[in-house]
Design brief:
heterodimer; A: alpha/beta; Ubiquitin-like (UB roll); DNA polymerase, domain 1; two-stranded parallel ribbon; elongated; B: alpha+beta; Aldehyde Oxidoreductase, domain 3; Aldehyde Oxidoreductase, domain 4; 7-stranded mixed β-sheet; 6-stranded mixed β-sheet
Chain lengths: ~210, ~700
């Protein structure tokens, strides 16, 4: 999707996200039977489930083979099966961005992607960035600018920031506000986040 | 005995500086483990059947099929047949199963029938509500005489709705029995030390056998003091299933039953003499925090006219009961008071800045408020930008300015701190406290390091464990004063023991020593010193372990702050959309321990205030009694692009430092609603009587005022 790569475009849209989650696999009752039958007739649709099916996920450069019901979300796999709990569960319906991960470099809400749909894609979570001892420049900027309080929304903001700066290394304040518009914070750390991104721009990949 | 006081300004290496929070790296990398993130071997997941009705009786309940579903390990009937349910989403049945999906399937298999009973949820009805409880009218001075004598009277009706806490980390627990008698509980709580006795009240377990953990927690704002019924039931499920159980609320119950700030509505009449001196106040207020009704907001707020009367009517509704929300009752009282007084200033044709300046004498802290108003006016360029109400010039986007005053207590709570200095020189402070995201952990570290003359990374801070010395719940802006005072006293006590060990080697008496720059040295003669590690090696084999408490000797904390906030808004009178252009907060809080996290509290208060001023409201459907917007699409929080420019100015200096440490969590969230509403009135020429200032309400006010 080349159009999304232009500087300053938001990292991801709700439309992309629905498109992403509807492609490929349907478990139960998501589409009408007519649509499902039609797709089956053309051989484009594979019916999975409702029982567990084999799923292979590439998470942070590591391959994981799992048995999962097709209804299991990418978020629940990360947290409940792989113990990658840096990705947070908050609204659980594609609004707050606390579960933001990168799918092939593009930010998505992991609560709204089925794990089976994430197969074959490069999944990057907050755990793929820095460690407390060796912070990624975006993470260091968040700490320096106190862009966090309770910290529960923070990994999502960091991942959304990573996606934004990967596309647009020098965003303006307006572009930052647009690029991070899909993430919500309750403690009120937006001023710090804005300052963090303005301080790190251009240096995110350093 | 050491002298228990804070170091003088020129002796501070860390206190008052801008220091990054100690747990920042753990939080930004996702390695910080919150309760929600605890995964125990063999852990089960919970789902709950919630009552869909606001008022009902359970007629029949059958969990037979549910208990036979795959993966189900324990079923708890929380409220059985015959129980009267008094609010929507009250818990009926909980099921623990091997996965979230299995638990969800099992809940769907529970068969339940209700007899639906009549409900009442319209808090705005006030005295017309079925169970309205009017309180005694409080009267000071001669309100009737003052009304008759007033040169100008303003009368208005104002309302602020119920809102939810909407913590990012939902309420919940992970419970694990290590044997029949011992419970480990990971809790998203504001009161680690208070958890064991709460479990002991709810289930058969001795509080001494309960250990609670809370290393990190994802926001509470007043809603997480109790372990709640789901805490007790989580422990019961774990006992029945003989396995660890995680119970975190889903978002719909989180917003509906785990968060509630009472609403407040009021008819207010105020009067002043021709020169703008407020002489008269009369108010009748009402509101609801659910089944428990609501307490009276402190009206009038901050400004106390000499002649006043107030009456409050508590309105119980079929809604889950209220929880303390950041500065309980103050945002409501502030909104009602400051809007009514701003309308009086408009009726007097006075600039509100001059009007509030003039009436500072009616506050308990006149000099502080005047200084703060002066500073705020400079920072927002009030005199250059202000125009009389409604005179915003041509064009559809109207700009306006508004201001508000607030107050809070903030005295340090009861706290115990244990400090150990080990023979290898390592240092640890242990407190049964918790860091809600305010920076508590960092504040403890700064006080400990400053007192021992060590760098911040040389000390270890251990909190979030109920086996540590008890420390108070984090609420009411009491934590920073409590933990900084107990830590300071404990560290001074530890140092006294260390000085006694080292003094002979340096050839002086212990009272001649000080801890500075990583050394123990002789006061006034830095050449006579010993590096910290070497000094610690004199301790022997057993560490120095001593305690400090708050309250205790020496004045280290105080209460009573004043703050002012100013807002500049742009309102599109064609669409009704309100935009925040700029907000200024000027705040005092005594001695600041960490300037960086202190300022973050104020930024956070402004943003949370913008949120309830512009978008937040629990919308309860009168027909079903259900919350209609119990999700984050429609329970709206502002995003990063909605906050405008924010300016925070902390009042600092010797006169503030000498008061000691005062809490800061509540004050900055009190004024935004009033300041923003007043700015909107200034911009568009009419009062929008309600918060949040949604476009439909702005347009309705314009229409009513004949402005559109």
């Amino acid at each position: 999707m080349a159009k999304d790569k232009k500087a300053g475009s938001p990292g991801f849209s709700r439309r992309d996200f629905f498109r992403g989650s509807a492609v490929g696999t349907l478990s139960t009752g998501l589409l009408s039977s007519t649509v499902v039958e039609g797709a089956q007739a053309t051989g484009q649709l594979q019916i999975l489930g409702p029982g567990p099916v084999p799923v292979t996920l590439q998470v942070n450069g590591k391959s994981h083979r799992l048995q999962l019901e097709p209804r299991v979300t990418l978020l629940d796999v990360l947290r409940n099966h792989l113990d990658l709990t840096g990705t947070k569960e908050v609204c659980d319906r594609g609004t707050c961005g606390a579960c933001t991960v990168l799918l092939d470099g593009k930010p998505v809400y992991a609560c709204s992607v089925l794990a089976v749909d994430a197969q074959g894609k490069k999944i990057e979570t907050i755990e793929s960035l820095g460690t407390p001892e060796k912070l990624h420049p975006i993470q260091a900027a968040f700490v320096e600018n106190d862009a966090l309080q309770c910290g529960f929304c923070t990994p999502g903001f960091v991942m959304a920031s990573k996606a934004l700066l990967d596309r647009n290394p020098n965003p303006s304040r307006e572009e930052i506000e647009k690029g991070l518009g899909g993430n919500l914070c309750r403690c009120g750390t937006y001023a710090g986040i804005r300052a963090a991104l303005l301080s790190v721009k251009g240096g995110a990949n350093a | 005995m050491p002298e228990y006081k804070w170091p003088e300004a020129n002796d501070r290496d860390l206190i008052g500086k801008k220091i990054s929070r100690l747990d920042g790296p753990a939080k930004v990398t996702g390695t910080a483990k919150y309760t929600y993130d605890i995964n125990r071997p063999g852990m089960l997941f919970t789902r709950t059947l919630y009552c869909p009705h606001a008022h009902a009786r359970i007629v029949s309940l059958d969990t037979t099929e549910a208990s036979r579903m795959p993966g189900v390990k324990a079923v708890r009937v929380i409220q059985g047949v015959g129980t009267e349910i008094k609010w929507a989403l009250d818990e009926i049945v909980a099921i623990a199963a091997t996965s979230e999906e299995a638990a969800e399937d099992a809940i769907r298999a529970v068969k339940v029938e209700y007899e639906v009973l009549p409900h009442f949820v319209n808090a705005e009805a006030g005295e017309k509500a079925p169970d309205a409880k009017p309180a005694q009218e409080a009267v000071t001075g001669d309100p009737d005489g003052a009304k008759a004598a007033a040169a100008v009277i303003a009368k208005g009706y104002y309302g602020i709705p119920t809102i939810s806490h909407c913590c990012m980390e939902a309420h919940g627990h992970v419970c694990e029995w290590t044997d029949d008698q011992h419970l480990n509980a990971w809790c998203s709580t504001q009161s680690v030390s208070g958890v064991p006795s709460q479990f002991a009240e709810g289930i058969e377990v001795s509080a001494a056998n309960v250990r609670a953990f809370c290393d990190y927690m994802g926001g509470g704002f007043g809603s997480k003091f109790s372990i709640d019924r789901w805490g007790v039931e989580c422990a019961r499920l774990a006992r029945e299933a003989k396995a660890p159980v995680k119970w975190m609320l889903e978002r719909e119950p989180e917003l509906t039953i785990a968060g509630d700030r009472p609403s407040a509505y009021a008819e207010i009449e105020v009067g002043a003499s021709q020169d703008g001196t407020i002489t008269y106040w009369a108010s009748k207020s009402w509101g609801s925090g659910g089944l428990s009704g609501s307490g009276s907001p402190p009206l009038p707020y901050v400004i106390q006219p000499p002649n006043r009367r107030h009456q409050h009517i508590s309105v119980p509704t079929h809604v889950a009961s209220a929880r303390a929300w950041r500065a309980p009752n103050h945002p409501q009282a502030c909104f009602l008071t400051m809007c009514a007084l701003d309308d009086l200033a408009a009726a007097l044709n006075m600039d509100p800045l001059d009007f509030f300046m003039k009436n500072c004498d009616l506050t308990p802290r006149a000099a502080v408020y005047r200084e703060e108003l002066q500073k705020g006016a400079e920072l927002i360029e009030w005199k250059r930008k202000w125009h009389p109400r409604g005179q915003s010039g041509p064009g559809s986007v109207k700009r306006g300015l508004g201001l508000s005053l607030h107050t809070w207590g903030g005295l340090g709570h009861n706290s115990n701190c244990e400090v150990s200095i080990h023979p290898d020189g390592s240092v640890e402070a242990r407190l049964g406290s918790q860091d809600l995201g305010t920076g508590t952990r960092t504040v403890i570290g700064i006080v400990l390091a400053e007192t021992l003359g060590l760098p911040l990374d040389a000390v270890k801070v251990s909190i979030g464990d109920s086996s540590f010395p008890a420390s108070g719940a984090s609420g009411g802006s009491t934590t920073v004063g409590g933990v900084s005072a107990s830590t300071r006293r404990a560290a001074l006590n530890a140092l006294e023991q260390l000085f006694a060990k080292v003094a002979p080697d340096l050839g002086v008496t212990p009272d001649q020593l000080e801890a500075e720059q990583g050394t123990i040295r002789v006061k006034g003669d830095p050449s006579k010193s010993m590096p910290w590690k070497q000094a610690a090696s004199r301790i022997g084999v057993t560490p120095i372990t001593v305690r400090g408490a708050n309250p205790g000797p020496g004045k280290l904390t105080d209460q009573g702050v004043g703050g002012i906030q100013m807002a500049e808004v742009a309102v599109d009178v064609e669409t009704g959309v309100v935009r925040i252009e700029k907000m200024v907060a000027v705040q005092d809080c005594g001695l600041i321990i960490d300037r960086k996290t202190a300022e973050s509290q104020v930024y956070g208060g402004l943003i949370m205030g913008i949120s309830y001023a512009l978008t937040e409201e629990k919308i309860i459907d009168p027909i079903t009694g259900r919350m209609l917007n119990a999700n984050m699409e429609f329970y709206k929080l502002p995003g990063i692009g909605d906050i405008g420019e924010l300016v925070v100015h902390m009042m600092t200096g010797p006169e503030h430092d000498k008061r000691g440490v005062i809490g800061l969590g509540e004050p900055p969230v009190i004024s935004p609603g009033a300041a923003i509403s007043n700015a909107v009135a200034n911009a568009i020429g009419v009062r929008v009587p309600y918060l949040p200032l949604t476009p439909d309400r702005v347009l309705a006010a314009l229409e009513k005022g004949g402005m559109s």
